[in-house]
């Protein structure tokens, strides 16, 4: 299984997280579902689906957290019979990011939480600063950027 | 508020050289109950030791040695001792000078009370 990243700064922190936490799948993305890097998926359509679902889950759970506690939940964990899903928000210099991790009995929630903290620290150091005069995210640009990122991940750019 | 396991961790922390005692979920590596001295990173110890114990159990089973009863990790400046049930494990973090024999007896006795 290979790593594929859109931004070069993602590779080292993501690889370290996968190695340490022993997760099967890891995807780093923007909260809007734009992928930045992934490990574990072989097809771009699977990454696109995972990102779209994770983004929707994050939006729902964030709002639920706001309603209940006045602030969004920072992590979400779902335990299935064989596999578990973990979704955590990461504070990067340019804004919040999401990390989706899927793991089985080779890992545990405790390990994922432990190495998420280290991942957050690495991202805070290696992520680029925010672009102050960057163009706004438009509907038409969103789909173009999404397709460009997926093509980059799977070597079709 | 003390849980049903707090008496176990409190009895273990009384030993000279013990820095922390925790009841940890074997599958998730999360702390159920802990009594720790200041400076001990309980969450990290819990997650990593539960993972180590799971692997030790699998190794022992693969070798045909049966169930794992007690796991001791000796490092340069301290020890981690673990004993457990099917769902929970007791993890004790201690200095090198601890009386391991006594601790082992206490730990195995306490582990009998875990599910």
Q: How is the secondary structure organized here?
A:
The complex is a heterodimer of chains A (157) and B (115).
Chain A: E1 3-5, H1 11-21, E2 25-29, E3 35-39, H2 44-69, E4 75-79, E5 84-92, E6 95-103, H3 109-126, H4 139-153
Antiparallel strand pairs in A: 1-3, 2-3, 2-6, 4-5, 5-6
Chain B: H1 6-13, E1 18-25, E2 31-36, H2 42-62, E3 70-74, E4 78-84, E5 88-95, H3 100-111
Antiparallel strand pairs in B: 1-2, 1-5, 3-4, 4-5
CATH topology of chain B: Beta-Lactamase
- What is the N-to-C order of secondary-structure elements of chain A (H for helix, E for strand)? EHEEHEEEHH
Q: Residue share in helices of chain A?
A: 40-55%
Q: Please compute the radius of gyration of chain B using only Cα atoms.
A: 13 Å
Which homologous superfamily in CATH is the superfamily of chain B?
Dynein light chain 2a, cytoplasmic
Number of strands of chain B: 5
| Helix-strand makeup class of chain B | alpha+beta
Sheet/helix structural class of chain A: alpha+beta
What is the CA–CA distance across the termini of chain B?
Answer: 21 Å
Cα radius of gyration of chain A in angstroms: 15 Å
The tally of domains of chain A stands at 1
- Most extensive interface, chain pair and sizes: A-B, 8 and 14 residues
Can you tell me the CATH topology of chain A?
A: Beta-Lactamase
Question: How is this structure best summarized?
Answer:
The complex is a heterodimer of chains A (157) and B (115). By secondary structure, chain A is an alpha+beta fold.
Identify the notable features of this structure and list them briefly:
heterodimer, A: 157 residues, alpha+beta, Beta-Lactamase, six-stranded antiparallel β-sheet, 23% strand, globular, B: 115 residues, five-stranded antiparallel β-sheet, 5 strands
What would your notes on this structure say?
The complex is a heterodimer of chains A (157) and B (115). Chain A has 157 residues and is an alpha+beta fold. Chain A has a single domain, classed as Dynein light chain 2a, cytoplasmic (Beta-Lactamase, 2-Layer Sandwich), CATH 3.30.450.30. In chain A, 45% of the residues lie in helices and 23% in strands. A 6-stranded antiparallel sheet of chain A has the order 1-3-2-6-5-4, with helices on both faces. In chain A, strand 5 (84-92) and strand 6 (95-103) form a beta hairpin. In chain A, helix 1 packs antiparallel against helix 3 (109-126) and helix 2 packs across helix 4. The longest helix of chain A is centred in the middle third of the chain and has 26 residues, at 44-69. Chain B has one domain (6-111): Dynein light chain 2a, cytoplasmic (Beta-Lactamase, 2-Layer Sandwich). Helix content of chain B is 36%, strand content 30%. Chain B has helices spanning 6-13, 42-62, 100-111; strands at residues 18-25, 31-36, 70-74, 78-84, 88-95. In chain B, strands 2-1-5-4-3 form a 5-stranded antiparallel sheet, with helices on both faces. In chain B, a hairpin with a 3-residue loop joins strand 4 and strand 5. Chain B is globular, with a radius of gyration of 13 Å. At the A-B interface, helix 3 of A face helix 2 of B.
């Amino acid at each position: 299984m290979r790593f594929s990243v859109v931004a070069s700064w993602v590779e080292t922190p993501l690889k370290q997280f996968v190695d340490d936490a022993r997760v099967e799948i890891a995807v780093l993305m923007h909260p809007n579902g734009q992928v930045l890097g992934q490990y574990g998926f072989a097809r771009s359509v699977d990454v696109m689906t995972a990102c779209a679902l994770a983004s929707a889950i994050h939006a729902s759970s964030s709002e639920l957290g706001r309603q209940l506690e006045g602030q969004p939940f920072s992590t979400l964990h779902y335990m299935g019979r064989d596999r578990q899903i973990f979704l955590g928000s990461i504070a990067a210099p340019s804004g919040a990011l999401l990390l989706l991790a899927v793991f089985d009995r080779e890992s545990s929630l405790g390990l994922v939480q432990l190495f998420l903290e280290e991942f957050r620290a690495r991202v805070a150091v290696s992520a680029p600063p925010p672009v102050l005069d960057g163009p706004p995210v438009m509907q038409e640009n969103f789909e173009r950027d999404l397709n460009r990122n997926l093509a980059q991940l799977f070597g079709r750019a | 508020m003390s849980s049903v396991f707090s008496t176990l961790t409190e009895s273990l922390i009384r030993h000279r050289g013990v820095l922390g005692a925790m009841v940890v979920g074997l599958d998730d590596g999360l702390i159920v109950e802990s009594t720790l001295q200041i400076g001990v990173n309980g969450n990290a110890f819990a997650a990593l030791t539960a993972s180590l114990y799971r692997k030790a159990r699998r190794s022992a089973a693969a070798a045909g040695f049966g169930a794992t009863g007690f796991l001791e990790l000796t490092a340069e400046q301290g020890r981690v001792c673990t004993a457990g049930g099917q769902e929970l494990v007791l993890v004790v973090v201690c200095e090198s000078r601890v009386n391991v024999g006594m601790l082992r007896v206490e730990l195995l006795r306490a582990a009998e009370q875990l599910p």
